[in-house]
Amino acid sequence: MTLRSRASLTEEPEASVVRWRVLEVNDSTRHFIGVDDRHLGGRVCSAVVAFDNLTWRGPTRSERIYRLIGDLGRSGNGDYVWQEWCAVNEPHSFAGITEWLSAGVTHDNRQ
Predict the structure, then answer these.
(1) Residue 54 domain-assigned?
(2) Which end of the chain is more exposed for a tag (fewer CB within 10 A), N or C?
(3) What is the pTM of this model?
(4) Which among 62, 61, 72, 7 is positioned nearest to 34, based on CA atoms?
């Protein structure tokens, strides 16, 4: 499987992700991992800066807005891209924090 480069923010200001989960890296930044609903490829977003649990949308550090669709889950494509992201970014640790969304959190002040 090869990694595809993402469209520019101008070409794709929003992205929707299915079979998603949320991981926190180094007790600091939070990232959506899942499958792009249009291309079905794996996707890892830059750091999430806020989240609206009513619309299931959140902007990231890159200013792209992500929308989470359907139930959380895992996928081979999402896991593959996550592994590649880790190989490049070399996080010290990461943990699943998907419950962060269901707890009613609307903003994440971590940058």
Answers:
(1) yes
(2) C
(3) 0.84
(4) 72
